Amino acid sequence: MLTFLGRRLLAVIPVLLVVSVVVFLLLRLSPGDPAAVIAGNNATSEDIAHIREQLGLDRSLPSQYGIWMGRVVQGDLGYSYYLGKPVLALIAQRVEPTLSLALGTALLAVLLAVPLGTLAAWRMGGWLDRALSAFSVAGFSVPVFVIAYVLIYVFAMQLQWLPVQGYKPLTGPQSLGVWDWARQLVLPWLTLSTIYVALIARITRASVSEALSEDYIRTARAKGLGEFAVLLRHALANAAVPIVTVIGIGVALLIGGVVVTETVFAIPGLGSLTVDAVLNRDFPVIQGLVLLFSLSYVGINLLVDTSYLWLDPRIRH
């Protein structure tokens, strides 16, 4: 177990190094100059050259990368070109809304999708199975922003049950109660969870239906076990590995893929910070965010791989 974790943790290092090199080079080689953005439209070439010198952009690419990686190893992601604040401080200010949105969406998707997929596999060909198939097609086909605007129009503008946009934290000087905090995230949660409910439910249905056709299911039924026990203790338990895999991938993608939803609902999270950094050519912020997203993706994949050892003891051998 410890050897497995050690190998996986060591494999993270080259992955992050490759990601850092690719992101660093793509940003520097893409068109646009952050010094020109900071200087403004009326700046002279001398003003832009002075800003480039202050930011260290006049140095060679290997020199810039070495300086940046040296700071990263020490836990310093640098300072924002545009805002003049530490990148870590900017990320810390924006991480709570994104985590609230991503984890709430993942929880809602799992609570809905796993039971629906299990029941659809149990009654394959029934009305629930057909309805789930239709919902899955719609969930994969309709863009997220379209779902967001439809939900805003119905529940916020017409029925006026939920707020349209904005976010206030659960803790802090402007904090809300738990109910009001959750109420402002209901529409974003529903918007993002649509595609993940469709994905997880389809995988659950396929995995459980395959498990239900195995010999040990017939043996369990022959022993007189009820259908509920057969579904939970035998079918769902043996189908857990692919289900957990897609849940883990979904959570990792959610943390790095909330840009559209945060923009539509005016949530000041990491997604909106990424958009602002790209528009302003703020290299340190973009690099710090990409490293954070990559690290979270690798970390969640490590947790998923570790969970296999608990879900299926056969994998240990």
Could you please describe the fold and organization of this structure?
With 317 residues, the chain is an all-alpha fold. The protein has 15 helices and no strands. Helix 7 crosses helix 9 (186-212), helix 10 runs antiparallel to helix 11 and helix 12 runs antiparallel to helix 15 (283-311). The longest helix is centred in the first third of the chain and has 36 residues, at 87-122. The radius of gyration is 24 Å and the shape is globular. The termini are close together.
Supply the key terms.
317 residues, mainly alpha, 15 helices, 75% helix
Task: Please provide a brief summary of the model.
75% of the residues lie in helices and 0% in strands. By secondary structure, the chain is mainly alpha-helical.
Detail the poorly predicted runs: none
Rg is 24 Å
Strand content: under 5%
- N-to-C series of helices and strands: HHHHHHHHHHHHHHH
How many strands, which pairing sense, and closed or not: the largest β-sheet? none
Give the averaged pLDDT, no decimals: 81
The total strand number stands at 0
| Helix proportion range | over 70%
- Strand pairing plus helix content: what structural class? mainly alpha
Multimerization status: single chain
* Helical segment count: 15
**Termini Cα gap:** 11 Å
Overall geometry: globular
Describe the secondary structure blueprint for this structure.
Blueprint: H1 2-29, H2 34-39, H3 45-55, H4 61-73, H5 87-122, H6 127-141, H7 144-158, H8 178-183, H9 186-212, H10 215-222, H11 227-238, H12 240-256, H13 259-264, H14 270-279, H15 283-311
